[in-house]
């Protein structure tokens, strides 16, 4: 998965010159990794792709294929990923997690549960462009149970963007009533709220939940008591992939 700072476009970039310098860095005995990194680290994704086209025109070879052969380890992984934007890197990660031996559900959770609506649409488009598959269909075909329902719901890209404090307080009370206040956890209620509310609202719900549960305990027992916020309750009272999904959305620290 890809995160990190945005690289600004190099104002005087010459794709053909960069292609020639990269060829020199890979030619002969040994590879000049420092030169490769210095060139590519200071180019945007679009500029790197332009360099790759210039390289193929000049040398008749695929630049990424050449880099794959001449580099190794973390440097190779980072350099090859740098030719793709965040959506395409995450799309490849999702495909690998689904199509490899078994399913690495944590990758799907980390990518899908933390994406906003625009990122979801970009991810689905990149997945289709990269592997010629439909991400939602692949998730349905490879994931089972509550996690399938959650991921498919999130892939609709319909998360709310508005923030309403009154709704936050109402949601916190509903989650407390459907969680700690009763025997067992109302998973459908937790899912409905955390899948649809904006990330700003979810952060506020996390803290409002603590105040709601604390006020209830003080009312019933007339004592001062430091109570859990929503994230802490989830850690203690849920398990498995459902727990991982909730913590990913809540922003586990």
Automatic annotation (TrEMBL):
It comes from the Eukaryota. GO terms for molecular function: calcium ion binding; calcium-dependent phospholipid binding; phosphatidylserine binding. Its main location: secreted. SMART domains: ANX. The keyword Cell inner membrane does not apply. One of its GO terms (cellular component) is plasma membrane. Keywords: Annexin, Repeat, Secreted. InterPro entries: Annexin, Annexin_repeat, Annexin_sf. SUPFAM superfamilies: Annexin. The keyword Transport does not apply. Pfam families: Annexin (PF00191). It is found in: Secreted. Belongs to the annexin family. PANTHER family: ANNEXIN, ANNEXIN B11. This is Annexin A7. It comes from Echinococcus granulosus (Hydatid tapeworm).
